[in-house]
From TrEMBL:
Domain tRNA synthetases class I (E and Q) anti-codon binding: 455-529
MF (Gene Ontology): ATP binding; glutamine-tRNA ligase activity
Subunit structure: Monomer.
EC number: 6.1.1.18
Record keywords: Aminoacyl-tRNA synthetase, ATP-binding, Cytoplasm, Ligase, Nucleotide-binding, Protein biosynthesis
CDD domains: GlnRS_core
HAMAP family: Gln_tRNA_synth (MF_00126)
Organism of derivation: Mucilaginibacter terrenus
Gene Ontology CC annotations of this record: cytosol
Protein name: Glutamine--tRNA ligase
Pfam family, one: tRNA-synt_1c_C2
Gene field: glnS
Domain of life: Bacteria
Binding site for L-glutamine: 66, 210
One example of a Gene Ontology biological process annotation: glutamyl-tRNA aminoacylation
Length: 552
């Protein structure tokens, strides 16, 4: 979009910093995913924001894996995250890992202990929680809080050396048990976890907490603007306190509202449940709000970036309608996708007065929305064709302008036909429609003088290829499944996948290429699925042509 837009609040902050000459005019952001799942559309928002902001001001962005929790993390996730960020169209300056800083973070912890600002606490998690007080009552200290520096240094070294089991001790910041901000009431810095880490192996059995790792990692990398979501606002004073006490590079934290999308869930924990419990086929199931799911569904990077741009940057959380995402992909594909004909719910139509055995080739533009039509392709026509069952009504309803007995319609890029009779099976279902055609009504050379109101798509029976077509609906039946009574999975839409097989497609579609979008005329935008084989083509519907979804 070319119209001038006003700056969002993060751009304003960066511009002020630049004007004040802060950090020598340098802008360095980071995208810090925890490799414990696949990225989703919410992460895309964060990616577009972090990378976009740096790009706009000549800066750079680091990709930093926040891998401080060995139990849930995996290289599979690291690889998928890299693939997804690249696919969205962004290049990181450096690929970094919080785990690379474990030595430094340990040194930082020692520094705080030596300053009398951290102590080893033997309390259980329950005891610590009980001693924390409530928002209206201050916390109470315990006997461990007054340990000497020497004792703390020794105990912390012993924790690192593996002398204690999980949960036996923690390292806490000695901060302010009376603070109105619960996060400042002696927050945990380290916990004991005898677990194998996907990068550091068994080198460590103590792992830093998010609050101690994140800000320090930012400072080590000299990140100028550390952007996170609003739930971290109460963590900001702690972020600043650690940096100040350790006298590190003054990275600053800024918060924006996370993206919430309706009719789906976005927490990685919930998405993981959908995968492991088999509610979907995998992280890249086309119904998932993951980047890999959207990609497989046929979404383009440009459409996702445009979506993130349109929702803007807010400070207060809100719910974005998935219709906006669908709008963005329609806009993009309308410009890019080639048009082809495919019949999803076929019924045979016989043109009685068309010569048996004859084949004619018609031609149609690849994309009438493109300036030069994007070239054209040819497709065969014969005496027998497939049309959509819904494009015929024996007795037409009011305002029904498609085919009926006695009614006329144009076959796209071909002839005008007139319905004559039907053949039915024992149950009364129509198995064949018979019609006549007007030879003088040929598209592009129509001398019939007739105008008809309807045009329908079709595929030649003799030449059609078959395909499996997968139609998707929303994964959940309610707008905010996480906010309903009971389990979010109770609200899964049982009809979120509808498989059609066989659908008949024009022969040229046999050459469809994975990832290249195509419009099945009147039926929506589709993309070849990775399940396709030479013998069996599989298409996913990305989105319908119009927003046809009405609240049930
Ligand atoms: P989830 O709750 O889905 O597991 P997370 O916040 O734990 O997400 P991280 O891997 O820690 O996931 O997130 C990496 C970055 O992406 C963080 O800066 C986080 O704030 C941001 N992010 C995560 N979810 C969203 C969202 N829905 N909207 C915007 N940014 C998000
Ligand atoms: Mg997280």
């Amino acid at each position: 979009m070319s119209e001038e837009k006003s700056l969002n609040f993060l751009e304003e902050i960066v511009e002020e910093d630049l004007a004040a000459g802060k950090h020598g005019g340098r802008v360095l952001t980071r995208f810090p995913p925890e490799p414990n799942g696949y990225l989703h559309i919410g992460h895309a928002k964060s990616i577009c924001l972090n990378f976009g902001l740096a790009q706009r001001y000549g800066g750079k962005t680091n990709l930093r894996f926040d891998d401080t929790n060995p139990v849930k993390e995996d290289v599979e996730y690291v690889d998928s995250i890299k693939e997804d960020v690249k696919w969205l169209g962004f290049d990181w300056a450096q690929e970094l890992y919080a785990s690379d800083y474990f030595d430094k973070l340990y040194e930082f912890a020692l520094t705080l202990i030596k300053k009398g600002l951290a102590y080893v606490d033997d309390s259980t998690a329950e005891e610590i929680a009980a001693q924390k007080g409530t928002p209206t009552e201050p916390g109470t200290g315990n006997e461990y809080r007054n340990r000497s520096i020497e004792e703390n240094l020794q105990l912390f070294a012993d924790m690192k050396a593996g002398k204690y089991p999980d949960g036996a001790k923690v390292l806490r910041a000695k901060l302010d048990l009376a603070s109105s901000n619960m996060h400042l009431r002696d927050p945990l810095m380290y916990r004991i976890k005898h677990a194998h880490h996907h990068r550091t192996g068994d080198a460590w059995c103590i792992y830093p907490m998010y609050d101690f790792a994140h800000g320090q990692s930012d400072a080590i990398e000299e990140i100028t603007h550390s952007i996170c979501t609003v739930e971290f606002i109460p963590h900001r004073p702690l972020y600043e306190w650690f940096i100040e006490q350790l006298e590190l590079f003054p990275s600053k934290q800024y918060e924006f509202a996370r993206l919430n999308l309706n009719y789906t869930v976005m927490s990685k924990r919930k998405l993981l449940q959908l995968v492991t419990e088999g509610h979907v086929e995998g992280w890249d199931d086309p119904r998932m709000p993951t980047i890999s799911g959207l990609r497989r569904r046929g979404y383009t990077p440009a459409s996702i970036r445009e979506f993130c741009e349109r929702i803007g940057v807010a400070k207060r959380e809100n719910m974005i309608d998935v219709g906006l995402l669908e709008f963005c992909i329609r806009e993009d594909l309308n410009k890019k996708a080639w048009r082809r004909m495919a019949v999803l719910d076929p019924v045979k139509l016989v043109i009685d007065n068309y010569p048996e055995g004859k084949t004619e080739y018609f031609s149609g533009e690849n994309n009438p929305e493109a300036e030069d039509g994007d070239g054209s392709r040819e497709f065969p026509f014969g005496r027998e064709i497939w049309i959509e069952r819904e494009d015929f009504m024996e007795v037409p309803a009011k305002k029904y302008f498609r085919l009926s007995i006695g009614g006329m319609v144009r076959l796209k890029n071909a002839y005008i036909i007139k319905g004559e009779s039907v053949v039915k099976d024992a149950e009364g279902n129509i198995t064949e429609i018979h019609c006549s055609y007007l030879p003088e009504s040929k598209s592009g050379n129509d001398t019939s003088g007739l105008t008809v109101k309807g045009t329908i798509h079709w595929v030649s029976v003799e030449h059609a290829k078959t395909a499996e077509v997968r139609l998707y609906d929303r994964l959940f039946q309610v707008e905010d499944p996480s906010n309903e009574d009971g389990d979010f999975k109770d609200y899964i839409n049982p009809n979120s996948l509808h498989i059609i097989s066989p659908a008949y497609i024009e022969p040229d579609l046999a050459n469809a290429i994975a990832g290249v979008p195509v419009q099945f005329m009147r039926k929506g935008y589709f993309v070849l699925d990775k399940d396709s084989t030479v013998d069996k083509l599989v298409f996913n519907r990305t989105v319908t042509l119009k927003d046809g979804w009405v609240k049930k």
